[in-house]
Automatic annotation (TrEMBL), chains A, B:
Gene3D superfamilies in the cross-refs: 1.10.1660.10
Location of the HTH merR-type domain: 2-71
One of the record's GO molecular function terms: DNA binding
Keyword Glycoprotein: no
Keywords: DNA-binding
UniProt name for this protein: DNA-binding transcriptional MerR regulator
Transmembrane segments: none
Amino acid sequence: MNIPIGELARRTGVKVPTIRFYEQIGLIAAPPRTEGNQRRYGKPEVDRLNFIRHARELGFEVEHIRGLLAMSQEPQASCHQADSIAKAHLLEVDRRIERLQALRGELSRMIDECGHGRICDCRIIEVLADHRQCASEHAA
Amino acid sequence: MNIPIGELARRTGVKVPTIRFYEQIGLIAAPPRTEGNQRRYGKPEVDRLNFIRHARELGFEVEHIRGLLAMSQEPQASCHQADSIAKAHLLEVDRRIERLQALRGELSRMIDECGHGRICDCRIIEVLADHRQCASEHAA
DNA sequence: TCTTGATCCTCTAGTGGCTAGAGATTCTAG
DNA sequence: CTAGAATCTCTAGCCACTAGAGGATCAAGA
C-alpha cells in the first residue's frame, strides 16, 4: 500500500499523466497526499485502473466505463437498473464483436489473396480501392 | 466530371468538411477551382476517396493509408509492405475480439444471475481488472 | 546532515481525426 | 433577376490522451 503514482502506472500499464487526467475528469477519486503533496494509492486503485485500461482497450468510451464502474460498485442497487444497463452493454458488445468479425474476415481474405508479388495484383490495394467491383470487372 | 464537393461527398460517403480536411492534411490533392473559387473534382478523386473511406472503416490510421496509397501508385513495387500493414492490423483485431468475448461472457453471466435477484457478486471488474487471475483464484 | 538524482507536482499546449458554426460568396433553376 | 441551396474560409470544439516546462519532494548513500 501507499503506492506512489509511478508505481501505480507500472502495475497497471496506465501512464502517469493519464492517471492524473483520469483523476481530473473524475474517473478515479483523488487519493490522499503526502505532506509534500504527492499522491499515494492503495490496492483498490490498482484494480480500478486495470479495469479502466482493459475497458479502454476494448474501445469503450469513458462515459460508458463510468457506468460500468458505478454498476459494479453498488451491489445492493436496484437489480432492475443494473440489469438494463448490463443488457444495453451486452447489446453494444455484441454489435462490436459482430463488426470486428466482419472486419476480420475481410482483412484476412485480403491478406490471403495477396499473391506476395507486385502491387498490381495485390488484393489488399484492390479491395480497398473499390468494394463493389472487386469481384467482377476491372478493365473498363 | 467537374464534380462539386457536395456531389463528391454523396458519391463517396465522406462528409464535405472531412474532404476539405483531407485536402488540408495532404491526403488528397488540392483540386482545380472554378472562377468563383469552388473545388471541382474528377473521377480519380472519387476512387481515391473511396479507397480512403474504406480503409478508415477497416480501422487503418491515416498514416497507414498514406502508405497504402503511395504503394498503390507504384504498381511494379512489391506488396510486401501492404501485406505487413494489413497483418499487423489483423492481429490487433483478433486481440480485440478475444477480449470482447471474455467481457461478453461476464456480462451475460451477470444478467443471468440478476434474474435470480443478486448482483452482489458482480465480477465485471475482476474480469476486466486482471486478465491473468480470473480463471484461477478469487478468494483471497 | 547533506547531496544527488529519480520521481513527483501543476500548468499549458499539442495530437489525431474529425465536426460544428459563423459569416460571406457563388452557383443554378425558375 | 432572384431566391435559396451549396460553397467558401476561418475559428473553435470534441475526446482521450501525451508532451514538455519549470519547479518541489523523496529516498538512499557519503
